[in-house]
Design goal:
Blueprint (H helix, E strand, L loop, with lengths): L1 E2 L6 H16 L19 H4 L5 H5 L4 E3 L2 E3 L3 H14 L3 H26 L5 H13 L4 H5 L4 H23 L2 H15 L5 H6 L1 H9 L6 H25 L21 H20 L22 H18 L5 H17 L16 H21 L3 E4 L2 E4 L1 H24 L3 H9 L6 H17 L6 H18 L4 H13 L3 H14 L4 H13 L3 H14 L6 H11 L3 H11 L7 H13 L3 H14 L3 H15 L1
Antiparallel strand pairs: 1-5, 2-3, 4-5
Helix pairs in contact: 1-5, 1-6, 5-6, 5-8, 6-16, 6-17, 8-9, 8-11, 9-12, 13-14, 14-15, 15-16, 18-19, 19-20, 19-21, 20-21, 21-22, 21-23, 22-23, 23-24, 24-25, 26-27, 27-28, 28-29
């Protein structure tokens, strides 16, 4: 047997843990950008100007997609702005930083548990942390660059808990100041800091079990956190310089967005079981779940009741072991805080389930597993505690090493799936047969590949695969408009125009104003030489959204080819009342007037275009037209 204790060398074990982190996740450094990474990398204007753009980072919504401005995570974007100031756009550096942040969180969690539970066997804390490192459920947080928000928030959250723990023990005021700093940074990174805040009352109770603590001193952290939260909320109102347009969520993302709060309760308890399954069997993971990969249960299903009974049981265990094994009880509390926050009962989650949402909660799970395994090993004499130093049997070592290696190898393998967006989506689509969105995303990735390689010998094969993904998606959710549009496009590429038009028309029944679909129908009509129908769909598409990619160039070609300049000028003049600041529409009407030799009108709209977006080219063109007009 071998003995195990931290003694005076607990930081040596922390270093071992950090090295293990890089061994498990180091192969992710070679990955490129993947899912949603564009939100924070080279397509986010706030980060691309580097550190000099700090004012805009703190006075703007963090993300922008089309007309949507949403979320306020300035500390997250600041970290990317600093990174790009030093390294530029470099995915491998970003992946390295993700691993480093994960390792930092592990170190601080290890430190926090060692300080908070000095009476617990060091081996339990060590093994719980090791299980946390190798658990595959964390691959999304580490491999998805955009998930740096979870990593940063977790680092701030655990540092906050560490400072509050020290404050409860020594009552030093500067601990509160540090805790306040980490709390504020957490709120400015992501709202998931609330999961860490939720365990503070239990941290207070744990310290109360050691010695009597004045309740007033517990209220100080609560008041401090509430003040920071309110201050940041009020500050956002004054700082943000752009209007927010929070996007709506679709049925296929989470059907509960259209339901009331009471419908969330049974569904949320069933979601807790899904997370529990992922924690116990993390060998088939997914970047996205959504409808109908995760069914929405109601009270007629057995699963909500099973979940309630299970979670009531572990609450009972947490209470029962509160004095005998405070680490075990605290692990249960962390798990419960994490899984309840991720369940969607209080706040709905896009995709219904997300592995990243259980990041801190999974720490509670691995602590509990380590504590229970320790008790089991003691029962079978695989571990014998002598003078607080456990003697470890080779059977316990072999079992533990095997468990760590299986989990670690699974994590190591999963990192490769996150190589890039195509690899991730097409890999996971094979086992996410019931997720409408994933099937649609897979078809779209193949469509993109077909467009980028139109002469590829695999074109026929790719078209068939994309068609199968679309049909599977529509079997799950027949009103998925993006998928109807994609399937219409597939048949268009195959020159099966009648089938293509059929699916575009189905899409219009879902949303008669979808500009993409209208544009595609216009293109089909143009191919079939149905001139007036093409004009009808072009005009409807432009009236809905003139900024659809290639819509205006295609419309201009149609106008010139069919000599419809006069009608087009009348139409564009009308919709400019709807889109008075649309630069591309102004350029189009300028070109049309120029071709009609109506230079006065062209100059009139040139002036308007110049007001929208001044440029040297427009000024020169205006000068040219004015000279021509004088002649």
């Amino acid at each position: 047997m071998k003995d195990f204790s931290f003694g005076n060398s607990k930081y040596k074990y922390a270093i071992i843990i950090i090295v293990l982190t890089f061994l498990v996740y180091g192969n992710s450094i070679q990955n490129n950008y993947s899912l949603d990474d564009h939100l924070v990398n080279d397509k986010n204007e706030l980060t691309q100007h580097g550190i000099k753009n700090i004012k805009q980072v703190f006075t703007s919504y963090s993300f922008k997609e089309k007309e949507f401005n949403y979320e306020y995570r300035p500390v997250l974007l600041l970290s990317f702005a600093i990174e790009y100031s030093v390294f530029g756009v470099h995915p491998h550096i970003s992946h390295f930083i993700s691993i480093l942040l994960f390792a930092l969180f592990v170190f601080f969690l290890f430190n926090f548990l060692s300080i908070t539970f000095p009476e617990s066997p060091p081996l339990v804390i060590f093994f719980g942390i090791v299980l946390f490192i190798v658990h595959p459920i964390h691959t999304e947080v580490v491999d998805n660059i955009k998930s740096r928000d979870e990593l940063l928030t977790s680092v701030f959250g655990i540092c906050m808990l560490l400072q509050f723990q020290k404050y409860f023990v020594d009552r030093k005021t500067y601990r509160l100041l540090l805790a306040a700093l980490f709390t504020g940074l957490g709120f400015l990174t992501k709202e998931s800091i609330m999961v860490f805040i939720a365990v503070i009352p239990f941290l207070f109770l744990i310290n109360s079990s050691k010695k009597k603590i004045d309740l007033k001193r517990f209220l100080i952290p609560i008041i401090l956190i509430a003040s920071i939260f309110i201050g940041i909320k009020l500050g956002k109102v004054h700082l943000l310089n752009s209007e927010t347009h929070v996007r709506g969520y679709e049925f296929y993302e989470n059907p509960l967005y259209s339901k009331n709060f009471w419908a969330r309760i049974p569904a949320g308890f069933s979601v807790c079981l899904v997370y529990l399954r992922l924690l116990f069997w993390p060998f088939v993971l997914s970047f996205y779940y959504g409808y109908n990969e995760v069914p929405i249960d109601n009270w007629t299903s057995v699963f909500p009741y099973v979940s309630i009974v299970f979670h009531a049981g572990i609450i009972y265990l947490a209470i029962k072991y509160f004095k005998k094994d405070r680490l075990l009880s605290f692990g249960i509390i962390i798990y419960l805080a994490g899984v309840f926050a991720a369940s969607g009962i209080i706040k709905l989650m896009p995709g219904i389930v997300g592995e990243r949402f259980m990041f801190f909660g999974s720490a509670g799970f691995t602590i509990v597993v380590a504590a229970l395994l320790y008790k089991l090993f003691e029962k079978y004499k695989w571990i014998v505690t002598l003078k607080s130093n456990p003697k470890i049997n080779s059977k316990a070592i072999l079992f533990s090493v095997a468990l760590v290696m299986v989990l670690g190898f699974s994590s190591f393998s999963r990192n490769s799936d996150w190589k890039d967006e195509d690899t991730l989506i097409l890999n996971d689509a094979e086992h996410l047969q019931n997720s409408a969105k994933v099937q649609d995303m897979a078809s779209f990735r193949l469509l993109t590949k077909i467009y980028s390689q139109p002469d590829s010998p695999e074109k026929t094969k790719l078209l068939k695969q994309a068609e199968n993904y679309c049909l599977q998606c529509l079997a799950i959710y027949p009103e998925y408009i993006n998928c109807l549009n994609n399937l219409g496009t597939l048949y268009f590429i195959e020159q099966n125009y009648s089938e293509s038009a059929k699916y575009y028309q189905k899409a219009l029944k879902v949303d008669s104003t979808d500009a993409n679909v209208l544009f595609n129908l216009a293109t089909i009509c143009q191919k079939l030489n149905k001139i007036e129908q093409a004009n009808f769909y072009y005009e409807k598409a432009l009236s809905s959204d003139p900024n659809i990619y290639n819509l205006i160039p295609f419309y201009k070609q149609y106008i010139v080819k069919n000599s419809k300049e006069v009608e087009a000028i009348a139409f564009i003049t009308k919709i400019l009342r709807i889109f008075p600041n649309d630069y591309e529409l102004h350029l189009l009407i300028i070109d049309l007037y120029d071709e009609q030799h109506d230079y006065n009108s062209a100059i009139y709209y040139l002036n308007k275009a110049y007001q929208i977006k001044p440029s040297i080219e427009l000024a020169k063109f205006k000068g040219t037209l004015e000279k021509i007009n004088k002649k």
